[in-house]
Amino acid sequence: SQAIKTKWAGKTVYFAEKVDSTNSWIKRLSKEGAEHGTLAVAEFQSAGRGRFDRKWEAPEGSSVMMTILLRPEFEPQYASMLTLVMGLAVAQAVDELGFKVSIKWPNDVVLSRKKICGILTEMGTNGTKIGYVLIGVGINVNLWEFPEEMQDKATSLAMESGQEYDRNQIIGLVMKHFEEDYERFIQTCDFENLLEEYHRILANLNQPVRVLNGADSFEGVSRGIDTKGELLVEKADGTVTKISAGEVSVRGL
Ligand code: ATP
């Protein structure tokens, strides 16, 4: 595809009109030997997924729905950090289109506090080694009527700007930024090289937030992420709690 000018990210692209989910599809391709950087793109997902088995919904042709397959050499414990690397890449791509975008740690990208992108990372191991990492990305691009329960939580690029976008251009921009960020990430297997850029785009930095973990919740001030990608939340008594991605949701207050 002519839109993607990268060394490996999205060099091979599979395209489908309709799949169950791009993550499930590329998982099957990975078992047939698809290589690092292979990208699966679909016009429609009949069973798009979010975290905790939640649904990701988008009408046909409305959005970017894609999953990249990675075969990192590093230890499995680092794989979940790639969610944050992809969040950064999507935010940088949207930033490059001229939006005031922010990252809602750990896995969403937002415009005016409404979600325009969700990210779902999954991993398979061979013994103690990584077999594959899949990073699924849904970006709301063009106009559609969101279901009632999503209307105050979701938006799209077109809804915010009144303009339609070429989805292939967006895919190309995300792949460009992801490849650069990933290469910086694997130098240290942490966020040392990406911290400053991440904090530039992070929502609620030094602002009050509520951390929700099932029925439990607490409030504090977000102090951004540490080099492991954990969110630092300072409570009123000055103690700082580290929150790891995967378990929680964080809301601005
Ligand atoms: P939270 O916003 O509560 O932190 P989350 O980050 O865990 O949620 P995900 O699991 O990544 O969310 O995504 C699933 C959720 O996203 C669904 O529960 C639904 O509310 C919402 N959603 C589904 N489709 C879309 C879409 N196209 N655009 C925006 N939000 C969507």
UniProtKB/TrEMBL annotation:
InterPro entries xref list: aa-tRNA-synth_II/BPL/LPL (IPR045864), Biotin_CoA_COase_ligase (IPR004408), BPL_C (IPR003142), BPL_LPL_catalytic (IPR004143), Transcriptional_repressor_C (IPR008988)
Keywords in alphabetical order: ATP-binding, Biotin, Ligase, Nucleotide-binding
- Which CDD domains does this one have? BPL
For this protein, what is any one GO molecular function term? biotin--[biotin carboxyl-carrier protein] ligase activity
Query: What EC number(s) does the entry state?
Result: 6.3.4.15
The enzyme's first-digit EC class, named in words, is ligase
**Where in the numbering of this chain does the BPL/LPL catalytic domain appear?**
1-186
Please state what the protein is called.
biotin--[biotin carboxyl-carrier protein] ligase
